[in-house]
Design brief:
This protein is mainly alpha-helical. It is built from 7 helices and no strands. Helix 3 packs parallel to helix 6 and helix 6 (105-122) packs antiparallel against helix 7 (140-151). The radius of gyration is 16 Å and the shape is globular.
């Protein structure tokens, strides 16, 4: 029984569902503050699945940079579930792309900025140096806070 509980916790944490649920909860909280209620709509689905996609990509890129730490439990779990994480990234990408087209045009335009910043957070964009925005000193915390504030 303990084995299955640990496997379930690993799935929630290392499958990035926990962080996607956190982003969804922040979107619901914003809806609740503004409208007095919350509901699943294209925007909340988009936020959940794009967060799932982004953090799965972040894990995949991170795995390629951390070979010397694979013996640590955290990284061995991520490495063990690497194919699962790729599937979550694909599902997250396809679902977020699908829900993006159901968003109001103004929301689509506004969401481009945090989307590009988020991709820069996870994917190396400086050729040769393999640097992501999160790799620059003191940028990560402001980037994460700013993007989450814009999205929610």
């Amino acid at each position: 029984m303990i084995y299955w509980i640990k496997k379930f916790i690993d799935l929630i944490l290392y499958g990035n569902f926990w962080i996607a649920l956190g982003a969804l909860a922040m979107a619901f909280q914003t809806q609740l503050i503004i409208d007095g209620s919350f509901e699943f709509d294209s925007l909340t689905y988009f936020i959940f699945f794009s967060t799932l996609f982004l953090y799965a990509v972040h894990r995949i890129v991170g795995i390629s940079k951390l070979h010397e730490y694979f013996e640590l439990e955290r990284y061995s779990v991520i490495t063990h579930y690497k194919s699962h994480i790729r599937i979550y990234a694909l599902v997250g990408f396809l679902a977020s792309a699908y829900f993006f087209f159901f968003l109001h045009r103004n929301i689509q335009l506004v969401i481009v900025i945090p989307a590009l910043l988020s991709l820069g957070y996870a994917i190396p964009f400086l050729s040769g140096k393999r640097k992501r925005l999160r790799d620059f000193d003191n940028v990560k915390i402001f980037l994460v806070a700013g993007v989450w504030a814009m999205v929610t």
